[in-house]
From TrEMBL:
GO molecular function list: ATP binding; proton-transporting ATP synthase activity, rotational mechanism
Gene3D superfamilies: F0F1 ATP synthase delta/epsilon subunit, N-terminal
Role, per record: Produces ATP from ADP in the presence of a proton gradient across the membrane.
Name used for this protein in its record: ATP synthase epsilon chain
Topology term for the membrane: Peripheral membrane protein
Lineage of producing organism: Bacteria, Bacillati, Actinomycetota, Actinomycetes, Mycobacteriales
Keyword annotations from UniProtKB, A to Z: ATP synthesis, Cell membrane, CF(1), Hydrogen ion transport, Ion transport, Membrane, Transport
Family from the record: Belongs to the ATPase epsilon chain family.
Subunit structure: F-type ATPases have 2 components, CF(1) - the catalytic core - and CF(0) - the membrane proton channel. CF(1) has five subunits: alpha(3), beta(3), gamma(1), delta(1), epsilon(1). CF(0) has three main subunits: a, b and c.
Pfam families: ATP-synt_DE_N
Compartments it resides in: Cell membrane
The ATP synthase F1 complex delta/epsilon subunit N-terminal domain, residue ranges: 5-85
Length: 124
């Protein structure tokens, strides 16, 4: 069984996840990172259009569309501080696919839709 670590995922308006995890995956401006317990300290900017996927101790996953913000890893825990975020289970995938098609690539609407689609697909 993989060693677990503490994870908090927050946005300005709510706590999206708090609990233990065995793995965390996130897109940062420097590329995708995977985090296991005892990871070296790290501070990174979340990539526009990315998502965060938390793997729980029972191997289930929590996916979060995160628009902007930071990932902070210390010896004690991992914190995802998102400017705005949404749980995958709250996403209307058809509306997001339509938004992706109707927005110009690279625009805020396009990146938000891409983020939400990534989160939805991570747990589908």
């Amino acid at each position: 069984m993989a060693k677990s670590f503490r994870v908090d995922v927050v946005s300005p308006d709510k706590m999206l996840y708090t609990g233990d995890a065995t793995f965390l995956r996130a897109q940062t401006t420097d590329g995708e990172v995977g985090i296991l317990a005892d990871h070296a300290p790290l501070f990174a900017e979340l990539a526009p259009g990315g998502c965060v996927v938390v793997t729980l101790e029972d191997d289930s996953k929590v996916a979060i569309a995160a628009q902007g913000g930071f990932l902070s890893i210390t010896e004690a825990n991992v914190k995802v501080l998102a400017e705005s975020a949404q749980l995958a289970e709250e996403i209307d995938i058809e509306a997001e696919r339509a938004a992706l098609e109707s927005n110009e690539e690279g625009s805020a609407g396009y990146l938000q839709a891409r983020s939400r689609i990534r989160a939805f697909e991570a747990v589908s």
